[in-house]
Design brief:
The model has no long low-confidence stretch (mean pLDDT 96). The strands form 3 sheets. This protein has a 7-stranded mixed beta sheet with strand order 2-8-7-6-5-3-4, sandwiched between helices. It has a 3-stranded antiparallel beta sheet with strand order 9-12-11, covered by helices on one side. A two-stranded parallel sheet has the order 1-10. Helix 3 runs parallel beside helix 4 and helix 9 runs parallel beside helix 11. The protein folds into 2 domains: 118 residues, Aspartate Aminotransferase, domain 1; 219 residues, 3-Layer(aba) Sandwich (Aspartate Aminotransferase, domain 2). The protein is globular. It is built from 11 helices and 12 strands. It is α/β, with parallel strands linked by helices.
Length: 357
């Protein structure tokens, strides 16, 4: 059997009646009902502010200490925020152009680092979490680091103790911290801890909390006003303003009560328990997620598994090597429990056919 070159693009957007997708990290839950009224009444489609609609930036102020609307840039999803930030940092003076990247990592980080002309340096996670001793060694000589908690693909949440150590160390060294917190509202074990510091850039979006991935509304926040201004300048010549209708919908979403998110977290936790127990019962080695909606089990012959599951069993999974985890496969549990159960049954059939359970 010849397995083609596998990449996420093969699976993104693929659907069908008999296909079970554990692939894309796209919530299947509905957005807040209140956001739909914006669509019918919105009429202004002129260019918007490059930095983002003022009402949306002002609505975000209460979520971030010591902020004004000028500490935010509204972007085309969190991905653009990361892309612009890395490209801006790469142009800031200094001997190093290295970025410390905890591994496994979200699969877009590595290409974005390289697109910015920067060089990755890896620190391997232990049990899905940062090994601070190794982190401390590797961060020296780096210009920036990317932190992702809760993590895609591991589902793990960093301890507050570790995050505070990272704050202190990076502040002392003058290292930029890109804190990707797009899953910050989907934590099962504690409240989110906001990393602080003069060179911290927090990345977030409305995709996961409010189930609005396709609107592509993300943002960055930083107290480093010089960096924010440089991002705005670069965005002026790339994408210009972010979708203004999407921003209005996002603004309406900011009025959503916390109970909306709490109900969703309850659903995610139930699904987490179901898929974690199901895969564990098959004898697979995996970490128990503490946030987001991913599991990353160790699988024998991962490339064969991903391709066979897709072609023979109509189940989509993501190859761990895309995330820097060569011996693992990522499952998203952003689908209802009945679909998860059916998908797990197909995985079990595959593993039985290989004599692995």
């Amino acid at each position: 059997m010849v397995i083609p070159k596998l990449s996420p693009s093969i699976f993104i957007g693929v659907s069908g009646k008999d296909i079970i997708s554990f692939g894309s990290g796209q919530p299947d839950l509905p957005p807040p009902k209140r956001v739909f009224k914006t669509i019918s009444r919105f009429r202004d489609f002129r260019y918007g502010l490059i930095q983002g609609n003022l009402n949306l930036r002002e609505a975000l102020i209460k979520r971030y200490p010591r902020s004004t609307a000028n500490n935010f840039v509204i972007t085309n999803g969190a991905s653009e925020a990361i892309d612009l930030t890395l490209r801006v940092i790469s142009k800031i003076g200094g001997k190093s152009n290295k970025v410390l990247l905890p591994r496994p990592y979200y699969y877009s980080y590595l290409p974005l680092i390289k697109f910015a002309g920067m060089e990755p340096v890896y620190t391997d996670l232990i049990n899905g979490r940062i090994d601070f001793n190794d982190f401390k060694k590797k961060i020296k000589g780096c210009k920036a680091v990317i932190i992702n908690s809760p993590s895609n693909p591991t589902g793990r949440v960093e301890s507050i103790e570790t995050l505070k150590k990272i704050e202190k160390l990076t502040n002392n060294l003058g290292v930029y911290v890109l804190s990707d917190e797009v899953y910050k509202d989907l934590i099962y074990v504690r409240e989110n801890y906001l990393i602080k510091g003069p060179h911290v850039i927090t990345i977030n979006s409305f995709s996961k909390t409010y189930n609005m991935c396709g609107l592509r509304i993300g943002y960055l926040w930083s107290l480093d006003k010089e960096l924010v201004d440089r991002v705005i300048e670069m965005k002026t010549h790339t994408s210009m303003n972010t979708n203004i209708l999407g921003q209005e919908i996002a603004y309406e979403a900011t009025k959503t009560p916390k109970s909306f998110v709490d109900k969703q977290v309850k659903i995610w936790r139930e699904r987490r328990n179901f898929i974690y127990n199901g895969l564990s019962d098959m004898g697979l080695d995996l970490w128990k997620p503490e946030g987001a909606f991913y599991v990353l089990p160790r699988i024998k012959n991962p490339r064969n598994f991903v391709w066979d599951m897709f072609k023979k069993y109509k189940v989509i999974t993501y190859l761990g090597e895309w995330f820097g985890a060569n011996d693992r496969v990522r499952f998203s549990y952003a689908l209802d429990i009945n679909r998860i159960e059916e998908g797990l049954n197909r995985v079990k059939k595959y593993l039985k056919s290989k004599g692995e359970i």
